[in-house]
Protein backbone atom coordinates (compact mmCIF):
# COMPACT_ATOMS: atom_id res chain seq x y z
CA UNK A 1 0.00 0.00 0.00
CA UNK A 2 1.31 3.39 -0.98
CA UNK A 3 -0.85 6.01 0.73
CA UNK A 4 1.21 7.12 3.72
CA UNK A 5 1.13 10.83 2.85
CA UNK A 6 -2.68 10.80 2.68
CA UNK A 7 -3.68 8.58 5.59
CA UNK A 8 -4.24 11.65 7.75
CA UNK A 9 -6.97 13.01 5.46
CA UNK A 10 -10.37 13.44 7.03
CA UNK A 11 -13.85 14.02 5.69
CA UNK A 12 -14.21 17.74 5.00
CA UNK A 13 -10.49 18.33 4.35
CA UNK A 14 -9.57 20.36 1.28
CA UNK A 15 -7.40 18.53 -1.25
CA UNK A 16 -5.77 19.21 -4.57
CA UNK A 17 -5.00 16.61 -7.16
CA UNK A 18 -4.61 15.48 -10.72
CA UNK A 19 -7.22 13.72 -12.80
CA UNK A 20 -6.57 10.93 -15.33
CA UNK A 21 -5.24 13.19 -18.10
CA UNK A 22 -3.30 15.50 -15.77
CA UNK A 23 -6.04 18.09 -15.26
CA UNK A 24 -5.88 19.81 -11.89
CA UNK A 25 -8.69 20.06 -9.36
CA UNK A 26 -9.35 21.38 -5.86
CA UNK A 27 -12.14 20.02 -3.73
CA UNK A 28 -13.08 18.62 -0.36
CA UNK A 29 -13.19 15.06 0.90
CA UNK A 30 -16.65 13.50 1.12
CA UNK A 31 -15.55 9.94 1.90
CA UNK A 32 -12.39 7.87 2.35
CA UNK A 33 -11.97 4.18 1.56
CA UNK A 34 -8.53 3.29 2.90
CA UNK A 35 -8.91 -0.42 2.07
CA UNK A 36 -9.50 0.30 -1.62
CA UNK A 37 -7.19 3.35 -1.51
CA UNK A 38 -9.95 5.60 -2.89
CA UNK A 39 -11.22 9.04 -1.94
CA UNK A 40 -14.52 10.66 -2.87
CA UNK A 41 -14.10 14.39 -3.52
CA UNK A 42 -16.60 17.15 -4.27
CA UNK A 43 -14.81 19.28 -6.85
CA UNK A 44 -14.82 23.02 -6.22
CA UNK A 45 -12.66 24.08 -9.17
CA UNK A 46 -11.00 22.14 -11.96
CA UNK A 47 -9.33 22.54 -15.32
CA UNK A 48 -12.48 20.76 -16.54
CA UNK A 49 -15.18 23.36 -15.85
CA UNK A 50 -18.00 20.79 -15.96
CA UNK A 51 -16.59 19.01 -12.89
CA UNK A 52 -17.17 21.97 -10.57
CA UNK A 53 -19.79 20.90 -8.04
CA UNK A 54 -19.56 17.23 -9.04
CA UNK A 55 -18.58 14.43 -6.68
CA UNK A 56 -15.90 12.12 -8.09
CA UNK A 57 -13.93 9.12 -6.87
CA UNK A 58 -10.15 9.16 -7.23
CA UNK A 59 -7.23 6.98 -6.20
CA UNK A 60 -5.90 8.17 -2.85
CA UNK A 61 -2.46 8.65 -4.43
CA UNK A 62 -3.94 11.23 -6.86
CA UNK A 63 -4.70 13.77 -4.12
CA UNK A 64 -2.80 15.62 -1.42
CA UNK A 65 -3.88 18.04 1.28
CA UNK A 66 -4.39 21.56 0.00
CA UNK A 67 -2.06 23.87 1.88
CA UNK A 68 -3.90 26.32 4.11
CA UNK A 69 -0.94 27.81 5.94
CA UNK A 70 0.60 29.86 3.14
CA UNK A 71 0.40 33.63 3.23
CA UNK A 72 -2.17 34.82 0.74
CA UNK A 73 -2.27 38.08 -1.19
CA UNK A 74 -5.43 40.08 -1.89
CA UNK A 75 -6.11 38.36 -5.23
CA UNK A 76 -5.76 34.88 -3.75
CA UNK A 77 -8.04 35.77 -0.85
CA UNK A 78 -10.71 37.12 -3.20
CA UNK A 79 -10.56 33.92 -5.27
CA UNK A 80 -10.81 31.75 -2.16
CA UNK A 81 -13.72 33.84 -0.85
CA UNK A 82 -15.55 33.19 -4.12
CA UNK A 83 -14.76 29.49 -3.72
CA UNK A 84 -16.07 29.47 -0.14
CA UNK A 85 -19.28 31.12 -1.36
CA UNK A 86 -19.64 28.64 -4.21
CA UNK A 87 -19.27 25.70 -1.83
CA UNK A 88 -21.44 27.19 0.92
CA UNK A 89 -18.63 27.01 3.50
CA UNK A 90 -19.61 29.86 5.83
CA UNK A 91 -16.89 29.19 8.40
CA UNK A 92 -14.18 29.32 5.72
CA UNK A 93 -15.78 32.43 4.19
CA UNK A 94 -15.69 34.19 7.58
CA UNK A 95 -12.07 33.16 8.14
CA UNK A 96 -10.99 34.40 4.69
CA UNK A 97 -12.94 37.64 5.06
CA UNK A 98 -11.15 38.31 8.34
CA UNK A 99 -7.78 37.69 6.63
CA UNK A 100 -8.75 40.11 3.85
CA UNK A 101 -9.77 42.75 6.38
CA UNK A 102 -6.45 42.31 8.18
CA UNK A 103 -4.63 42.93 4.88
CA UNK A 104 -6.61 46.11 4.34
CA UNK A 105 -6.31 47.31 7.97
CA UNK A 106 -3.27 45.70 9.61
CA UNK A 107 -3.56 48.02 12.61
CA UNK A 108 -6.85 46.28 13.59
CA UNK A 109 -5.14 42.99 14.47
From TrEMBL:
InterPro entries tied to this protein: IDEAL_dom, Virus_scaffolding_prot_C
Domain spans labelled IDEAL: 59-100
Pfam family membership, one: IDEAL
Protein's UniProt name: IDEAL domain-containing protein
Gene3D superfamilies: Virus Scaffolding Protein, Chain A (4.10.810.10)
Signal peptide stretch: none
SMART domains xrefs: IDEAL
